[in-house]
Amino acid sequence: MSNMLEVADLGHTYGDYEAIGGLTFDVRAGELVCVVGPSGCGKSTLLRTISGLIKPTRGDVRLNGSHLAVVFQDYQRSLFPWLTVQGNVEFPLRSLPRAERRKRAAEALEWVGLTAAARKRPWQLSGGMQQRVAIARALAFRPALLLMDEPFASVDAQTRFELEDLLLRVRREHDTTVLVVTHDIDESVYLGDRILVLSSSPARLVANLEVPLPAERDQVTTRTADGFVALRSKVARLLNVGKPSMDVEKWAAAERESLSETVSSS
Ligand SMILES: Nc1ncnc2c1ncn2[C@@H]1O[C@H](COP(=O)(O)OP(=O)(O)OP(=O)(O)O)[C@@H](O)[C@H]1O
C-alpha cells in the first residue's frame, strides 16, 4: 500500500517553546490513523503543520495527493450561518462549474444522510447534524487526506457514537484516508487502523500501534471484545509516559513488546 502522507522529523517551536519535538510517521492510502496524546502535547499544532496553516520549524510533510480537507471540533464556527446547508457544502468547490458543485454537494449530503436538510440553515440543525454538514463539506472536496481535530468532542455521547459509525462507513465506502486527533482513548481504538501515541509536550512518538480488530466494527460488540479492552489499557498506560522524568523510548519499547505478546497469544 502506498503512503498518502509522510511526516519526517517534524518539529515546531513557538518562540522558545518547543511544542513538537521531531515526529516521523506515515499514513498509508486508505488508512484511518488516530493520534492520541496528553492535553496540550501539540496535537493541534501537528495538524496545523500538516495542513499548511503553520510552517513547521523543521522537518518535512509530504502529501501524495493534491487536496486535503480539515474538520474541526467547533462546527458552529466552521459553518457559515447565512448559507444553506447545501451552500456550505458547495463553498470550497467555488472553482468548479455550478452543475458539478451541485452534484458533488448533493452526493456528499446523501453520504451523511442529510439530503432532506439541504435547504436549511446550519442553526436550524442539531449539533450532530451540523458536524455531519462539516464532514459532508470535507468529503465533497474529495480530499486525498481528511484531517480531523477532535471532530466529535462537542456532541453528546449518543451522537458521538453515531458520528463515529458514520465516519467508519464513509471512509470504507469512499476509500478515504483519514488522520484523526482525539483525546478519547476508546475512540482511538474504535476508529483506528493504527494509533499514534504522543508524549507530553514537546510531542514525541511514544508508540505506533496497529489495531488488531476486524474492519467491521460495532459499538457494542467491538467495545467489549478482548482485543479492544487490551489495547485501550495499553494506550492508557502509554499515555502516562508523558512525564518528563521517564525514559520514554525505553517505556515505549517495553510496551510494544508486551502488546505484541498479548496480540499473538490472543
Ligand atoms: N500560537 C501559539 N503560540 C504559543 N504557544 C502555542 C501556540 N499554539 C499552541 N501553543 C502551545 O503549544 C503547546 C501545544 O498546543 P496544541 O494546541 O498543539 O496542543 P493540543 O495537544 O492540541 O492541546 P489540547 O489537547 O488541549 O487540544 C501548548 O503548550 C500550547 O500552549
UniProtKB/TrEMBL annotation:
It holds the Pfam family ABC_tran. Residues 5-225 form the ABC transporter domain. One of its GO terms (molecular function) is ATP binding. It comes from the Bacteria. The keyword ATP-binding applies. CDD domains: ABC_NrtD_SsuB_transporters. Keywords: ATP-binding, Nucleotide-binding, Transport. The keyword ATP-binding applies. Coiled coil: none annotated. This is NitT/TauT family transport system ATP-binding protein. It comes from Lentzea fradiae. The lineage of its organism: Bacteria, Bacillati, Actinomycetota, Actinomycetes, Pseudonocardiales.
